[in-house]
Write a structure and sequence with these properties.
Elements (H helix, E strand, L loop, with lengths): L1 E7 L3 H4 L4 E5 L5 E2 L3 E5 L2 E5 L3 E2 L9 E5 L4 E4 L6 E6 L1
Parallel strand pairs: 2-4
Antiparallel strand pairs: 1-9, 3-6, 4-5, 5-7, 8-9
Length: 86
């Protein structure tokens, strides 16, 4: 397994934020940065606070593959979120 850099975080406070498992993506649901959902047979990390529309759109999400094992900030690259994926 390797660490993959997935998102530049907006602030130092965001670096401390934890990933929040939200399960399956649901239409008309409010999502926040750090939320992780399953949609279209993949895992997605929310980058922007928004309320979901009727159909999933990757506009506010980063695809992180089939699963997220762990998350961390890398001390060598401050402000970036890293995830370990299989």
């Amino acid at each position: 397994m390797a660490w993959d850099q997935i998102a530049r975080l907006a602030s130092a406070d965001a670096v401390a934020a934890k990933l929040v498992e939200r399960g399956l993506w649901v239409a008309s649901t409010a999502y926040a940065p750090g939320d992780v959902v399953t949609a279209n047979y993949s895992r997605w990390y929310c980058t922007t606070a928004h309320t979901a529309g009727a159909v999933f759109s990757p506009t506010n999400w980063i695809n992180v593959g089939p699963a997220i094992i762990a998350a961390a900030t890398d001390p060598g690259v401050p402000g970036w979120l890293w995830v370990k994926v299989p």
